[in-house]
């Protein structure tokens, strides 16, 4: 993630940093000592009453959240340990063997197994995790279950959403406080069982009654704006209506419910399924009523494809709608918008004024397409992939524009910055975990987008078996450790475009095409954000085949810059500027850093207008001092970053008349 400004930097107190490290290390030690040991029996009554009390306290805001850490001079911030990554379950439920609570072993991933559970207490909702007590179906055994970070779906806490769940390949471990717990990291490892079990129907009339009941219940839930409930009812209705006994006698019933669910899917941003549902609802009949229903379905499919950025499919759906409902205003308006998006995609010609005027705090996202036409992805020696210019591009001209895959703005509910302590390198980092959660939600809702994110660079690659798996029969599979690692290496800060942003709620985004751009301290691109559209222009003329670079960190101090590049992006920069600065040696760099610091405080304090001669001379002396730290030959043609602030002050200073 691009560095935040000093004002937005979070400093943990030393004691707090030490406490976090000690807690994580002690937990890891205990876990390895207990690994493989049999689980101990838990008393149901006291476990449930403990959870009930904690839930009440958390709801009233009265309980201390064990995940909150104190920061210097600021409010507490969530602190999350990033443990040893492990892959999500990639096996379908029907191929997993049921297990019992009594089979659980400490610090073990129970591969090949599933655990059917019922929630037995209210849910304790904390900033970065939710937990509850769960029981087996016979209510003989009780255990703690916690869901970490990615714990909400469609605005609802997953553990609260119902009572029955199935855990795929349960992970039994310890909390940071040393208490045994079942732990869900990957949301796809928890199957939410909403609704009744549907048996095979033999009587067509009874089946029709049942399917219609589900459909009506779905309609009522929609009226009450309970979208997850409406989705669950329609899903059950479809299950019944698709059974042979009914689909052969009344195929239109399934189509009706598919059409309704397509609408719910649109509202829930489950766009892939909105399209498949809308297509499944098509009657292809010629009577007026059927044509009107199909027209509605095409509209739903077209809107979903538009939101997915699949403008060609979207155009096809809206044109199909227009054939059935000639002159339809909404379809016509969409087709006009699609033309603009396709023009942007193909030629990079944007109506920047319209884009800017369409933005506000309430509508912070652009309606724009990504333009990549001047660039291509290629291997960059020692840097993985990189982006290269496919033609000569004059200075100032558009190189590419990338519409964000996902942005979380500081003023949005999802915005959450946390301190993460990564056990892999024992480093504490500031991490926009709210962005990671939003990316995970978007992928779980739209599995067609999973490869677009998962092909990005990130430390954890998954295992040979899990790599590339995007779904099982139970739904999409998302490796949250991989998303977290991809986000850490690829996300950008997008600036405070809609008002204040603080340390705890920085605006951040993932741009899946611009993510291929490597770093250089002498960048050849200039970046600008228009809402969630990242616009990159040539900072100087680019030649065909040249690699394009951004500066991830612009700190003029070599040592601070290298430290940030190593901590956040995991590499040592070896660009020409870094080579020159490295050769300077520690003493010269130290002297320069002191002078630059002095120059920065001078620039901050001294007014340029009406500056006294004495003040001007001090500025000149400072500039000369900094200049002298750069050896002439070695810095020939290289930027002297330390000089930039004071030189700009001098250029614009107006001496007293
Ligand atoms: C945003 S990604 C850039 C694209 C990436 N190279 C890829 O293969 O997808 C950032 C990662 O690229 C690598 N990288 C970027 N600039 C680099 C540089 N100047 N030297 C070495 N590695 C670099 C680092 O691994 C960094 O974490």
UniProtKB/TrEMBL annotation:
Q: Which domain of life is it from?
A: Eukaryota
Question: Pfam families this protein is in?
Answer: SET
Q: Which SUPFAM superfamilies match?
A: SET domain, TPR-like
Q: What is the name listed in the Swiss-Prot or TrEMBL entry for this protein?
A: SET domain-containing protein
Name the PROSITE patterns on file: SET, TPR
**InterPro entries for the chain:** Gramillin-biosynth_MTr (IPR053209), SET_dom (IPR001214), SET_dom_sf (IPR046341), TPR-like_helical_dom_sf (IPR011990), TPR_rpt (IPR019734)
Q: Does the keyword Repeat apply?
A: no
Q: Provide the SET domain boundaries.
A: 373-553
The entry's keywords:
TPR repeat
The protein's matches in Gene3D superfamilies, at most eight in alphabetical order, are given as: SET domain (2.170.270.10), Tetratricopeptide repeat domain (1.25.40.10)
